[in-house]
Design brief:
Keywords: DNA-binding, Transcription, Transcription regulation. This is HTH marR-type domain-containing protein. It contains 7 helices and 5 strands; from the N terminus they run ββααβααββααα. With 208 residues, it is mostly helical. It has a domain of 144 residues: Winged helix-like DNA-binding domain superfamily/Winged helix DNA-binding domain (Arc Repressor Mutant, subunit A, Orthogonal Bundle), CATH 1.10.10.10. It has a 3-stranded antiparallel β-sheet with strand order 3-5-4. Strands 1-2 form a two-stranded antiparallel sheet. It is globular. It starts with a strand and ends with a helix. The relative contact order is 0.18.
C-alpha cells in the first residue's frame, strides 16, 4: 500500500508506507527556566545505555548513507548536503546564520559554497537592508537536488515510524513522530533547544 508523504514546503511523492509526516515544531520543551542539571545515567543494565548509543550510531550511519550515494555521483560530500538542505529550507539565509547552524569555520563553509555556487545550485544576493550581507538562495537546480536528497531520507524515516509497535487500531500515527521529535530535541544541549525550535518554527511559518 502506498500513500503520499508530504514534507514542508514542496516535496510530495508516493512511498510504500501509509503515514503522513506533518511538521510539528514543538516549542513547549524549549520554554524558559533553568537548564536541567546534568544527571548521571541510571539504566537497569549498562548494556541498555550501550544499546542506545550504538543504535543512534547505526541509525545515523544508514540515514546519511542514502544521500551519500547520490552525492558521490556529483562529486559532493556531506558538507555540501548540509549547506544545500538549510539554504533550501530557509531561503535568504545569511552566511552568519548558516555558520551558526552548522558550527563550522568560515573557511570550510566558503569552500563548500564555492562548489555549490560555481555549479549552479546556490545563488548569492545582496541584503536589502544591509548591503554587506550575502543572502543565500537555492536555484531551481539546487531545489530539485535538495528534494532528491531529502526524498531518500524521508522514505527511511517514514518506514521507521510505521514499523513502531501500535497499541491499537485507533492510535494516531502522528504520536510516533511526536515521540521521535521529542527524543531528538532532548538530545540537544538544553541552552540550544529554544534556538532550534525557533528556527524550525520559521520554516513552518514560511510554508503556511
Amino acid at each position: 500500500m502506498s500513500t503520499t508523504l508530504t514534507y514542508p514546503h514542496r516535496i510530495a511523492f508516493s512511498v510504500e508506507v501509509a503515514i503522513a509526516l506533518p511538521h510539528r515544531a514543538t516549542t513547549e520543551a524549549a520554554g524558559g527556566g533553568e537548564p536541567s542539571p546534568i544527571m548521571e545515567p541510571h539504566f537497569p543494565d549498562r548494556n541498555d545505555g550501550d544499546d542506545l548509543i550504538e543504535l543512534l550510531f547505526f541509525a545515523y550511519r544508514d540515514f546519511v548513507a542514502d544521500p551519500d550515494r547520490i552525492l558521490a555521483e556529483y562529486g559532493f560530500g556531506r558538507a555540501h548536503h548540509r549547506v544545500l538542505h538549510f539554504v533550501d529550507r530557509y531561503p535568504g539565509l545569511t552566511i552568519a546564520e548558516l555558520l551558526d547552524i552548522l558550527r563550522i569555520t568560515k573557511q570550510s563553509l566558503n569552500r563548500v559554497l564555492k562548489d555549490l555556487i560555481e555549479q549552479g545550485y546556490i545563488a548569492q544576493r545582496t541584503g536589502t537592508n544591509d548591503r554587506r550581507q550575502r543572502l543565500l538562495f537555492c536555484t531551481d537546480l539546487g531545489i530539485r537536488f535538495a528534494e532528491e536528497l531529502s526524498r531518500v531520507q524521508m522514505r527511511r524515516v517514514a518506514r521507521a515510524l510505521v514499523d513502531q509497535p501500535r497499541r491499537g487500531a485507533n492510535d494516531d500515527p502522528g504520536e510516533a513522530l511526536a515521540s521521535a521529535q521529542g527524543f531528538l530535541l532532548a538530545m540537544i544541549e538544553p541552552e540550544e533547544r529554544a534556538v532550534v525550535t525557533r528556527l524550525m518554527a520559521r520554516r513552518a511559518k514560511a510554508a503556511a
